[in-house]
Structure formats: structure tokens, C-alpha cells
Amino acid sequence: MRSILMLTAIMMSGYLSHAQWTPLCSGTSGNNGFVVDFEYYQDSLYATGLFTRLCGANTGPLAVQEGDEWTGAGAIPRDGHALEVIDDVLHVATYQFASDSNYVFRYNGSITSSLGAGVFCSGLDPAATPSIYDIIEYDGQIVASGDFNRVGDKDISGIMRWTGTTWDSLGGGLSGSLPGAPPIIYAHNMHVFDGDLYVAGNFGMAGGKTVNRIARWDGTEWWEMDAGFDQAAYCVGSYAGILYAGGQFADAGGTPVKCFARWNGSSWESPGFDEVILDDGTIIPCGSVIAWDGDSIYTFDGGVGDKDLEAMAPYGEGYLFGGGAFGQGYIAEWTEPEPPLSIEDPATSWNLYPDPVHDLLYVHHDHFTPVAYNISNYSGQSIQSGHLQFNQVPVGNLPVGMYFISILTEDGQSVVKMFMKK
Which residues 6+ apart lie within 8 Å of 271 measured at CB? Predict the structure, then answer.
């Protein structure tokens, strides 16, 4: 199964093969709100979000899967935005609209309780809702982030840590917002990488320092990450020892980084694509989810173009995705079958060139002679096949995009490779 990481999109490793989506429940009849997060706890899968009904069951905003059914768990009184297991307890960050406060809740499998005081927005826009977006464990403490500037009777802004008895500020907290935008901090996502805590959002400052939408906490002090971003950052995560960020931004200190950025140790740079447009201008159609292995993009069979996805969890032989749209939820399973054809001898390799290709694709192997081919798209649809002549495959009539080519050799061996048509 793939090793992947959720950003605004998804990063992945492993081979690419055809897969399939199986909706488990969608629409408004069985779901009345967005699914935001999944988490495994005590060998069961939990879900939270902006719903009280999930897959036809009245669950409240915290649900647990029992067999093929979802049931309510924990009696959480507010909509949820994030789940995290810390010290064998399931923690829920709540995000209830039109509420004067929100809380971190704990669920131990039978009993629900709030953790300390609630968060508030004091003196801000009357429409502002105090919200907790994310919760994480860092350096032995529980840390939560969101939109707030008061916790109980304490002035704590944007991020808070649990001391064991009360919530306290983390290094002076987060403040400021995007010029010209509503006054929201939007500390949306956190990630621990190489011993430091990273936070992404809409804030302008951390601990009194100008950071612009993303900041690093080293356990003692806040640090900027070069010039930050010009617009909100929604998420931060790592893959293969490299830190990535995703969001609504287009610039990082003068460097174009449309929606996705990679940290090189001193500054942000393009990871090789933006808005699913490769550096060479190739547009990759996708729907709410992609995978990136550091070199190429996979679109999970085109994703789900009419919905947003935010929740993801390993599930069986694939992954479970959750999301939806306003007033409705969506849960679907994505499975990755075993490769339909055999893989080449690891001692030798097939060569496809040029890649990307414009007109003629050449196929070569040191020990096998290719005799036939079949080209299919990401949905598994066969779009061209034939016999190989002089190891050449004409692809000039194919639209720009990514394709699979199945190659058959004269001794019955077969292999699947991928190439890009420009």
C-alpha cells in the first residue's frame, strides 16, 4: 500500500497502477455535513466534522465505525475539526459556528470530558467564531491551534499548550492577519518535523516576530521561515525528509510558489508543480486529491471533482476519504489492486524515451523484444493499442497528459510503465 501524506493534496511513494473509488455514503439524505477528519482509536475508526448524521445514522459530530455501520460516540456537543490520540485518549478539537466558545474534548472510549477552559474571540469582528482547528502532541504536551485570543480568563492568542492543569500561551502566541482580509488568525494546521513544531495559517506574527502565514517553534522561541507567504497557508507536512506547505498563496519572498511549496532549508521553492500544472506547462486534471512522489503526480483516477476532500485514513487495501460540500457529507473508499501485469526483471530495465514525448515513443529493453502495446489513461480506459514496429509507438494524436503503456514481449512477458505526453 502507498505511503502518503496529506497536504492540500497528497504526497505518495510506490508504483502507480489503476485503482477505483467506491462511495460508501454521499449526498444529503444520509449525511448532513462535511467530514473533516478520521482517526483510529482502540482499533476502531472515528470520524468528526460538521455533521450530526452520517451514512444514514444519527451520530452527532463524533462517530465510530462498527462493521459497515456508523454510530454516535462520546456525545460531543459541538462540531469537530480535528482528532488526535494522545496518551491513549482521543482528543477532539471543536469548531462550532455561531458559538461564543469552543473546547478541546477528550473521549476514553466511554466518557467524554472537556479539557480545561474554552476559547473565545474578545473584541474582534462580531461575526468571528472562536475555533480550534488542530491538536497535536509536541514535547510531551498537548498543543491546540485556531482562531481565538482568550482562553478562559487568560489572554492567549492562536495557539495554546496544556500544562497538565491549565491552558497556557506558547511563546507569546500568534497574532495579526492578512492585510485587507477579515481579522482571523486561522492557525489551521500543525506538524512536528525534526524536533520542531510548524504552524500554518493566516497569522502575520508569532511571538512578536513577523512570519507571514507559517512559523517554526523550536521549544523555546518562534522563528520565521524566510519571508513566509503572501496568502494563507492551509497545511504543512513532511515527506521523505522534506518539508512541504500548501495553501492559497502564490508568492514566497519573490519566488513563485502557486499553492504548493517545498522548504530547501533556507527558503521556499516550487516542488516542480503548482495548481497541478507542471513546470513545463502540462496541466494535470484532478479532483480534490493528488499524490506526489517527489518526481511525478498521480491523480487517483481523477479524484472527485464535484466535492472537497479533507479527511483521509488507511483503510483495508487502500484509503478512506471524507469530505463533502455545504450541508452534505461524503465518504468513499479508494482501493489499489495488485498490478495487473508482471514487473520487469529488476536486474535490467525498460527504457521509454523521450519522456515527456511529443510524437514517437521509443521502447527498449536489453533482453526482451516488445511486440505489442496498449495505452490507457488514469481511469483505466484503453485508448490506443497495436503492434510495435522498430520499437516505436506513435503518440502524436494523444491529448497532453499522463498515460500507462502495457508492453507485451515475444516470450509472453508483460510490464506496465508510465509516460507523459506533451
Answer: 244, 260, 261, 262, 292
410: exposed, middle or buried (Cβ count in 10 Å: 0-12, 13-18, 19+): exposed
Q: Cell 465518504 identifies what position? A: 331
pLDDT attached to residue 285: 61
Task: Pick the more confident residue, 190 or 3.
Answer: 190
**Mean per-residue pLDDT for 110-133?**
85
Region of poorest pLDDT, from 15-19, 105-109, 243-247, 390-394: 15-19
Looking up cell 452520517 gives 54
Strand partners, 3: 13
Looking at residue 347, what is its pLDDT? Answer: 34
Domains and CATH numbers, the chain: 3-335 (2.120.10), 350-421 (2.60.40.3080)
> What's the distance, CA 241 to chain centroid?
17
Of 234, 240, 147, which is closest to residue 190 (Cα–Cα)?
234
For residue 356, cis peptide bond before it (omega within 30 degrees of 0): yes
Mean pLDDT, residues 18-38: 82
Residue 120: count of CB within 10 angstroms of its CB: 20
